[in-house]
Design brief:
The chain is built from 5 helices and no strands. With 88 residues, the chain is mostly helical.
Length: 88
């Protein structure tokens, strides 16, 4: 992937993170993206992108501890998001 392609991907992921559809998801996922997106590379970007494909209700249930994420989503990026949410 060229650096221009990666720049576009990061911009798209940031937009998707901050325009989730619910204010709480925008704040948590968007806040995480603003703080960590530039440092994510390779697999971590793929993991984050996969999490963004999850519906807001499911994602927020996972983040709030009301349900466990599917095993495919229990990744190092998921752990970072949980730590980010808990420090908020």
């Amino acid at each position: 992937m060229t650096s221009e392609d990666e720049t576009i991907r990061r911009k798209r992921l940031l937009y998707q993170s901050t325009h989730r559809g619910t204010k709480e998801a925008d704040m948590i996922i968007g806040g995480f993206a603003r703080e960590f997106l530039d440092s994510l590379t390779g697999d971590a970007l793929d993991q984050f992108e996969a999490l963004l494909s999850v519906s807001d209700p499911d994602l927020m249930h996972w983040i709030n501890g009301q349900a466990e994420p599917d095993p495919a989503y229990r990744t190092p990026v998921w752990d970072l998001i949980k730590k980010f949410k808990n420090k908020e």
